[in-house]
Amino acid sequence: EPPADFICPITTELMSDPVMAADGHSYERSAIERWLATKSTSPMTGEALVHSFLAPNHTLRRMIREWQQARA
């Protein structure tokens, strides 16, 4: 079972391309892009996002890959 931080709150699946949104939460890139195509709120809090820039979460992606390799 993967750590909760590795799971996208939108898809509830293990992230492969995690990005951080303005709310400080990480999401799978494709899922949050679909969300932001029709909404301007945080999927986690429901509050308005101050911007729609998505920053790659390289640290989280590395941690997920290391976890996957350790289980391979």
Brief write-up:
The chain is an alpha+beta fold.
Structural overview:
With about 70 residues, this protein is α+β, with helices and mostly antiparallel strands. It has a single domain (about 5-65), classed as Zinc/RING finger domain, C3HC4 (zinc finger) (Herpes Virus-1). The protein contains 2 helices and 3 strands, in the order ββαβα. It has helices at about 30-40, 60-70, and strands at about 20, 25-30, 55. It has a 3-stranded antiparallel beta sheet with strand order 2-1-3. Strand 1 and strand 2 form a beta hairpin. The model has no long low-confidence stretch (mean pLDDT about 95). One of its GO terms (molecular function) is ubiquitin-protein transferase activity. It comes from Emiliania huxleyi. One of its GO terms (biological process) is protein ubiquitination. This is U-box domain-containing protein.
Which descriptor suits the 3D outline? elongated
Give a quick account of the main beta sheet: strands, pairing sense, barrel closure.
Answer: 3 strands, antiparallel
Please tell me the total number of domains: 1
- Average pLDDT works out at 97
Helix content: 25-40%
Going across the major beta sheet, what is the strand order? Answer: 2-1-3
One letter per element, helices H and strands E, the order comes to: EEHEH
How far apart are the first and last residues' alpha carbons, in Å?
A: 13 Å
- The name of the CATH topology is Herpes Virus-1
What fraction of residues sit in β-strands?
5-15%
What is the assigned CATH homologous superfamily? Zinc/RING finger domain, C3HC4 (zinc finger)
Q: How large, in whole angstroms, is the Cα Rg? A: 12 Å
The total count of strands amounts to 3
Low-confidence stretches: none
Quickly give the structural class.
alpha+beta
